[in-house]
Each structure stands twice: as C-alpha cells, then as structure tokens.
Amino acid sequence: METPMRTLQAERSKAQHRTRMTEKRRSGRTYRQRLTVSMTLLAVGILTAASVAIYLRVRQALFSHLDSALLSIARTEVAGAIDEPGGKVHVHEDLSLLSAPVGSGYEKFAQIKDQSHKRRAQTANLSGGPILETDAELETQALEGRVALADMQRANEIYRGIYYPMRDANGEPLVAVVAIPTRPVRRSLESLLGALVAALVIGAGAAAVGASRLARRLTRPLEQVAASADAIGGTNLQARIPDVSREVELRQVTRVLNDMLERLETAFTAQRSFVADASHELRSPLANLRGTLEVALRRPRPAAEYQEALTVALAEAERLSRLVEDLLMLSRVDARQFTLDPRPCDLSDIARDAVKALAARGQENGVRLRLDAQPTAVAGDADRLRQALDNLLGNALRYAPPGSEVVVTTRQQNGHVSLTVKDAGPGLSPEDQARIFDRFYRADVSRTRDSGGLGLGLPIAKAIIDAHHGQIAVQSNPGEGCLFSVLLPAA
User: Fold this and answer.
1) What is the model's pTM?
2) Could you give the number of structural domains in the chain?
3) Angstrom distance (rounded) from CA 89 to CA 32
C-alpha cells in the first residue's frame, strides 16, 4: 500500500507545481519575457543607431560629392564663357547624343548675370520654361568675388546651385549661376532609407527570435532549479537540487539553496524530535495524575487516603508545570524572543545563594555542597544566572554518589569570569559529552524519568549562558565525575 500512496503523493505534487507555474504566468511577465524584451530593445536600439549613422554619413557624402561636381562644372563654365570671337559671353549647352534619356537624371541649368542682375546668357532649358529662382544677396557676394553654394527652386523643385564670380572681356564683374537638380540624390537617399528600414524590421524580427531563444537558454537552468526546489516538501527534505549549469553564479545559487535545505532538514528533524520527546514527557505525568485520581474515585476512602492521592496529584501537577515552563522557555529561545534584564551583579553571591538553597537536598542524598568563591562582577540577569546554576547543581546532585561532595568555584581571569561545578559522579563517555546539552538527552539510560530528570536542565543552562554571550563546556572521563565550566564576560 505504501508504493501506490507515494505515487499518488508524487502526482499530487506535480499537479500542484503545474498549477503554481500557470498562476505565475498569468500573474504577470516572467523573467524570461523581460529578458527577451530587454535584449530585443537593445538590439533594435543598436540597429537604429547604426542605420541613422549610415544614412547621415551617406547623405553627407552624396551632397558633398554634389557640391564638388557643381564647383567643377562652374569652373568649366566660367573658363569657356568668353572663348567666342569678340569676347561675347555665352554658356555651354549639354548636347545629348542619345535618343533616350539615361543615367542619373542630372541636367545643368546655367545663366550669367551682370552687376544689374540682368541675364547676359543662359542655357536653352531656361528659355521657355519656369525661371530659376536665385538669391540677389548671394549674387551680389559673387559679384564681389566670393563663391557661394545654396539651394534654389524652379517650378517647386529643389536645385543645388553655385554663385561663381567671373569677368567679361572688358574686365566687368559678372556672376555665373549654375544649378543641377537634387532629385537623383534624394531618390538615392529615399532608396537607402527604404533599404535601411527594411533591414531594421528584419533585424528587429531576427533579434526578437534570437533574444527569445537566448533568454530561454539562459533561464532554463533557473526554471530547473525552481522546479527542483518546488518539488521538495516537508516529507523529502533530504532531497537536494542538482547542478544544472556550469556557470559559477548558478552553481553558487545551487550551493546556497542546498545549504539552506540542509539547515531546514536539521531544524525540521530537531523540531520533530523535540515535539515527540515533549509529548512523551507530558504523557508520563499526565498518566500518573489520571491514574491516581481514577483510583481515588473508584470507591469511598478515608480522608487520609484522599489526602495522599491529592499529594501525589499535586506533585505530578507541579512536575507538569515545570516541564511546561521549561518548554516555553526553550520555545522562546528558538523564536529569538528570549530576553534578559542585565544589571551589574556578583556571580559569587549568586553561587552562595544557590548552594544554601540546595544544601538540604544534598544532605538528603548524603552529598555535601562546598563553595570556593572569589568576588566576580558580571553584567547579567541575576535570576537567569541563578536558574542556570540551579540546573547545574541539580544535575550534579542527581548523579553524585552518597558520601561525595560537589564543589562550586568562581574566579576572575583575563577579563572574564569563570564558574565551575565539579561532582564525583559516574562521569561521561565522549559520545555522551557530545550530546549532553541536547534536549531530552539522558546519559544514564538505566535511570527512570522520575530519578533521572527531564533532560532539559542542561539545555536551558546552555541557552542562558549563550544569551549572556558566554560559553559552557563539560570535561569528564568515565568513573571520574564531571566538571562543568562556565565562562562569562566580566563587568
């Protein structure tokens, strides 16, 4: 029956995992989507910047080449403007030897003006058509001997023109205005812009596909880690997340998660053990209390027997109360809610009071308590330190044989305060010393729960000393007793 049950639990776990993943996808964008969008936008941004740079560079090169060609044409035009007999000013016509127009569509428009801005000569293509709109100020600058380049218009079409200074046969200043259409350059730029836009669209699509695949490849190890971590529940904390990538960062994440799982497993194991031991400890006094009361109520009894039953019930109730208080204190320690009231106090006075309080109990067991104390000032919670010392003395009196003595010493040494409790009991083995401060642990398994204590005194003493930023340790050999030593910061 166990195998089908485990299979059913595994199927339920997988279904819950799929449900959680679906809810995550519906709740918002995933890290993969954000990574895809970010890489796509980055690629599109780079492509856009490169396209703009290419377009501007080509545009600058084309117009620079157009200006250079225009300057060369103007120089040629001026050089041959007065080569006719008599020095008559004229312009050169572009004669086409082809029956059909070919080439890039360039056509020269030229005219020569005098100082009054009257045309002295012009090309035939300006005779019967729209005029070439020129700038009078630039013409004046050219008449003064300065070359100027500027855009012109003719019939709502933009031309690139040059104002070039010259002189006639008599030395009078003239200006040669030469213009060529910019339509071919703009068409070339439009073609280039279309090609760049198409390349940008194609590049953006390719970048989106590549970014999606790259993001899937990069996030797949994270999803595997998440799936492995999600599959680990309270019943299989011993499972670990496998290495899913060779990258140092992902291996580090996996290592940190596995370390956390190991700590969780240890904590859960300790918690289960603690709950089981506490339940067992509570069951014994409850059973004794219930049994005593049930026996007392079975039939009428004399007052003395009722009083004896109530005395036993009261003792068990007090035992339950002590156990509950100890458990509550340890739970506060685990929840980090254990607080102290530190004040200046003398540890030797605390030890003296504890020895006096437990001296009568020692006499009942035939054990003598002896104090060897020196003034030792500490900053601590006197009540909690007394509780820790009572637990150490109670443990010593429980195991010390009759006729022996328990020695308590306090000393000041090297900025610290030391307290030791030494008994002549059966001692501890190395295995017992390693676990003596564990909760509910008893070194002597032959003792009953009534005579051997609850196994919480030493853990509580250690928790109190740890809260005071101190240290507690035990030294022992089998058959030679135990020496519990406490080291606290001096006041």
Assistant:
1) 0.52
2) 3
3) 76
What is the token pair recorded at 354?
A: 């504890």
Encoding tokens for residue 201? 């669209």
Q: Which helix (H) or strand (E) holds 60?
A: helix 31-79
Let me know if 258 is exposed, middle or buried by CB neighbors in 10 A (0-12, 13-18, 19+): middle
Residues 113 and 149 grouped into a single domain:
yes
The string of pLDDT tens digits covering residues 280-316 is: 777 777 888 888 888 888 888 888 888 888 888 888 8
- Which of 396, 398, 418 lies closest to 407 in space, CA to CA? 396
DSSP state of 104: T
Distance CA 167, CA 82 (A): 9
Asked whether residue 355 falls in the same domain as residue 474, the answer is: yes
**311 and 358 housed in the same domain:** no
* Shared-domain flag, residues 353 and 413: yes
By the 10 Å C-beta count (0-12 exposed, 13-18 middle, 19+ buried), 215 is classed as buried
- For residue 165, give its domain range: 81-92+103-183
Query: Model confidence over 155-199: pLDDT tens digits?
Result: 889 999 999 999 988 889 999 999 999 999 999 999 999 999 999
Please identify, among 183, 207, 228, the residue that sits at the C-terminal boundary of a domain.
183
Owner of token pair 């709950």 = 275
Angle of helix 457-467 relative to helix 303-334, nearest 10 degrees?
40
Residue ending a domain, among 332, 360, 387, is 332
Q: Confirm if 211 and 36 have CB atoms less than 8 A apart.
A: yes
Task: Compute the distance between CA of residue 214 and CA of residue 39 in angstroms, rounded to an integer.
Answer: 9
Note whether 297 and 252 are same-domain residues.
Answer: yes
Residue partners of 78: CB distance under 8 A and separation at least 6? 164, 166, 176
Are residue 344 and residue 261 in the same domain, yes or no?
no
Q: Tell me the C-alpha distance between 179 and 165, whole Å.
A: 15
Cβ contact 410:417 at 8 Å: yes
